[in-house]
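As a warm-up, study this chain.
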Amino acid sequence: MRVADAAAGRGPSDEAAVMLEVASAATWIGLDRALRSPEVVYSESFAMAEDGLPRDGRLSRLVAACSPDGRRRESAVAYPGMGADGVLLPALVLRTADWAPQVREAARRSLVAALKSADTAALVAAAGVAVAIESWERGGHALEAVAEALRAAPDEVLASARGQQDVGVRRLAYRSWLASDRPRHEEVLLAALDEQDVVCQMLCAEWLVSDALRCRRVDGLERLLGEGGARAGVAALTALVELGRPDAGVAHLADRSAMMRATAQWAARRAGRDPAVIYRDALASDRAPGRVRALVAGLGECGTRQDVDVLLPFLEDPRPRVRAEAVRAVRRLGGPVAPIAGMLADPAPVVVRAVRRGLRGEPGAVPAPRLWALLAADSPPHVRVGAYEQLCGMDTWTRVHADLHLLAARDAELGARARDDLIDWSRRSAVTAFRMPSEETALHLGKLIDTAEPVLGARQAGRLRWILGRRAAGPAGGGGGSRSA
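Now compare it with the structure written out below.
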């Protein structure tokens, strides 16, 4: 409304122009839609009837370019001043995806000419809108036009676009820059090392790899491998192996990144060395805090069943993340469940999460009495979650018992999860529970249903009683069925 009022001479146009100069792509898209709202259309019609002509020509063209009237939109985008005005260039970009073919074609013709004379700020603003509408049905044309304009822009314009906060604009600028014949090896290497966005990093890394393979040079790859991110390092190491330098992977066997370790293990094998032997030797002598975790993980990834004895002592390491990694490594190599099952009460949540994953498919790993003790309200939350999941994995009626127990106790931490699980079981899995519970278990579950009914609701409680084959005796007094347990 402030833009419409300024266009009609009822508000300060300078203030509206300043707002447009700093507007984001999302703001332009929202403004385009809002200017076709009934409130704005009525306000504009009233102003035309009262004042004859709007007072601000620039904002009038903007309002016309976003009008619900296709003829007005077509006339606005075809006007030479529309494309020449950098502030209004984003509106011209939007019209290239217009639903009316006449408007769309006129906007596209105007956009090509406008982009050639646009300054840095206008080109960056247009790029932001073009990236934002790329996924629209007719939005691809604007992105192609802006990308072409960026490829032809001076170096300082491209550099400015590569430094924008809008990550979409940065990625478009990097693609345009790297697709041209202007980048130098050193510039791209510095960009790959300094850039924070992983997509832009990889665009630079791919260019460097292609250049290195073409020129048979390894210096940039070695620096990218040592100082770049994990994805860029993987690309660099892969290229070094192709260039006959597989030995470069040995130094990265203890990398924190799993994909980097996997690539380094492949490179070591290409160099004729067994990575598992390197990991074993390193674990026997290296206790550096930053490396032990990665060494444990690496041995778990490429070791054998005989390496479990090497890994078991690390289950008692004082560092939680090392213990968690040891749990994963032991289970990956098929190690015993017993020492891991005893860690379900570990004080570190990261360790218990690893234990929970390691015990999946092992319903009897922890005795039921121990699990019920760990589920007690005074246990830490992460321990209770682990105990609950193990109970639910034991058998059907233990799962139902655990859910009802938490609901009957009005458990604040796990009650909602238990309710959802119980409802899901009754709807999806109850029909496959061919073995009914014992009479004692059925009576106990029935009492829990009665207690939990205010939380479950009468209908769900009745459904559970019917599944159990128990005549309802709860306060609702309904939902009973013949006793078949």
